[in-house]
Amino acid sequence: MTVSKDVSGGVALWRRIADAIRLDIVGGKLASGDRLPTEALLAERFSANRHTVRRALAVLAEEGVVGAEQGRGTFVRSARRLSYPIGRRTRFREGLRGQAASLVSQSLSHRIENATAAVAAALGLKPGAKVVRTEGLSIADGRPISRSTTWLPYRLFPDFAERIAQLQSTTAVFASYGIDDYARASTRISARHADVEETKLLGLAPGAILLVSEAVDVDSAAIPISYALSRFPAERMELVV
Amino acid sequence: MTVSKDVSGGVALWRRIADAIRLDIVGGKLASGDRLPTEALLAERFSANRHTVRRALAVLAEEGVVGAEQGRGTFVRSARRLSYPIGRRTRFREGLRGQAASLVSQSLSHRIENATAAVAAALGLKPGAKVVRTEGLSIADGRPISRSTTWLPYRLFPDFAERIAQLQSTTAVFASYGIDDYARASTRISARHADVEETKLLGLAPGAILLVSEAVDVDSAAIPISYALSRFPAERMELVV
Fold this sequence. Notes:
alpha+beta; Arc Repressor Mutant, subunit A; six-stranded antiparallel beta sheet; disordered N terminus
């Protein structure tokens, strides 16, 4: 717990300043390589003191969005958000191809559990049916871009967790089970603040926003094969339909 | 500006408590009619004092998400989020049909302006081309659910603004120009905090999250006819693909 004076309705002024600058960059008002207005001008624009502006710039610098250059000022870096295409044929790795030099998927943990009502409904199972639950983290060029929890019918994929840890790709694991094609049945998109665990795992500043997608994939016979709850840092990812 | 002691990383504890409870409701851990844990239990769960928990509950009560009942405790109300379907054929009013008893679209203002680079690119125009810009607000059952800014080629729709004020429906205005069918070419979805104006117009608590969609619609000859930037309060709306 720290004490802050610049709080209005639960979001500190430094965070709102950082958001506004990020928005200027995403919206094209500021392009990569542009010099940011001086601290004095930013302080005036946001009715803030320079200490507050400096804190906002420090957070943006930490995220790689801006960089200070000795004696020259603060410049916009090319930290563009990645675009993840959502459609009938949604593939995470394919969708991000060409947008990142490296894309690593980590399998954090897995367990067998009984489906809650929500998971059972999504997968067309009876509540309490056995499901495999895997926890994963995806990292693009060193920046975590997705934290996902996936449930699958245990009956169809008893050792899904072991295979995903080895193959790193959901598509590859499905193929190993003889499923050569699968399709996105539905995607529900919402947004919320990251919780403490997500903030830590995704390397975010506390209070960062997540885009949340709840997706059901089905096989060629329209049988649900996975239900995934994915959290994407809004400052790093956008979804394109 | 107020002073808050419960700030961690720019988001006050009361706001994070409210987010967590909202998440429990959306995620199905708490259903409509369920009694919330007592203030003492919530205070323990979030390592907060009871004053902070009370503030979180007051905000949720104001939003209609929970309600306190004299001598009985605090209960979950059925303030479910509306689902807005996004697809090839995306229609705002049609998509929300059955989810709200009343849906009012207000035309706030309009003007003719020269397209910025981003607007021109979205509409396939030359930068600086004349565009109609309209500002709108949509309200479902008394709750604002969308604040949108729409740009259209002036050449095609010189008096779009006047017609939308009268007809209230984009589909109806397009029909009045002889466009009987149109389709969604692309939708880009991101999320950020609401700014001061959006907070006020949408009737949100400061620091609320918006889902932002940038959408281009095209006519049957694939000519771009509108570019809309819509902001939906994440606590009231979700997008379904």
